[in-house]
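Supplementary Methods. Inverse-folding protocol.

Structures were first reduced to a discrete structure-token string of length 338. This string, shown here, constituted the complete conditioning input.
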């Protein structure tokens, strides 16, 4: 009987996972260039990371982290993009203490994944929830994992489908000790420079900050959309797209969202291909609920949320711009005009 046949199922899984991990180890970060005196290499702590969820953001995050020299073992329900076939194999492929990043839809999917990790991981390991979970769920997850000696960090992540190139803005919550274990990964994901990362506070602070960020995003997009519809309505303005383009430099309302609006208008000058319907991811609602709980007036953000509700009743011109912007920065689905 050969060696492979004598192995039990669990040992065989670990052997396959470790064989994959050896193949996936990163190349050296610094190679001596020929004919030049090299600069001293920047010190980088190379890490292993388990990443669960390889969709639009998760897949790009895996690539950005690997480009920084770290090893990423990715798992997704889609076997075509996965590095391993199960959560068990993912955990087996990582050397302890492990860091596992969860990038799946908020709610039941996140809860199920964290429950499974609670059974697979060991004391000293750390779980990062990088999805758009509600901050109150973070407190629950942290408490459940802490009872097993497992750390927890919540990370609000912004950057959409552009994050691979530009980096991701990161707002994280949790104990400083747990965040320090993940810091090399945060450094790989964030944009270059000093901005783009913040330890916002204790558990839940990261997702709460991202929630407010998205509420502000709602209001900004609504303002651009309302202005665009008014310009389209009057007869005296004959080139609305170029008016938007003229705002990109030198004005107080220039922003990345404005740049994306111009991109959308370059693709479809009058947004005639889109239906005036825009969904909401839930964070706008949570922002308004938090404002009510804390007696903080948020008229602009609240109105922008209600405007999206109105889009589900009529084919709103403003919501064509909102839909176009959401598709530009996040790759969110749009509905074609009838």
């Amino acid at each position: 009987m050969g060696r492979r046949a004598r192995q039990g199922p669990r040992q065989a899984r670990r052997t396959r996972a470790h064989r994959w991990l050896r193949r996936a180890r990163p190349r050296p970060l610094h190679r001596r260039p020929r004919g030049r005196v090299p600069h001293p290499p920047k010190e980088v702590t190379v890490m292993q990371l388990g990443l669960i969820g390889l969709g639009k953001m998760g897949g790009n995050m895996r690539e950005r982290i690997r480009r920084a020299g770290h090893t990423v073992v990715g798992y997704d329900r889609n076997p075509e993009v996965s590095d391993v076939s199960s959560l068990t194999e993912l955990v087996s492929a990582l050397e302890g203490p492990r860091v596992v990043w969860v990038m799946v839809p908020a709610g039941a999917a996140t809860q199920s994944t964290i429950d499974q990790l609670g059974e697979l991981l060991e004391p000293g390991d750390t779980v990062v929830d990088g999805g758009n979970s509600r901050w109150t769920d973070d407190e629950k997850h942290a408490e459940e994992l802490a009872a097993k000696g497992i750390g927890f960090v919540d990370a609000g992540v912004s950057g959409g489908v552009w994050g691979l190139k530009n980096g991701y803005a990161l707002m994280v919550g949790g104990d400083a000790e747990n965040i320090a274990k993940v810091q090399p990964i945060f450094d790989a994901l964030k944009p270059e420079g000093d901005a783009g990362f913040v330890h916002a506070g204790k558990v839940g602070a990261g997702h709460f900050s991202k929630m407010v960020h998205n509420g502000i995003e709602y209001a900004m997009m609504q303002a651009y959309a309302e202005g665009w519809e008014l310009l389209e309505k009057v007869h005296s303005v004959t080139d609305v797209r170029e008016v938007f383009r003229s705002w990109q430099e030198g004005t107080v309302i220039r922003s990345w969202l404005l740049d994306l609006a111009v991109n959308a208008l370059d693709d479809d000058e009058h947004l005639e291909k889109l239906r005036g319907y825009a969904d909401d991811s839930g964070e706008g609602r949570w922002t308004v609920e938090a404002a009510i709980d804390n007696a903080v007036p948020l008229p602009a953000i609240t109105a922008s949320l209600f405007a999206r509700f109105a889009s589900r009743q009529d084919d709103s011109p403003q919501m064509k711009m909102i839909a176009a912007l959401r598709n530009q920065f996040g790759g969110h689905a749009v509905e074609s005009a009838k």
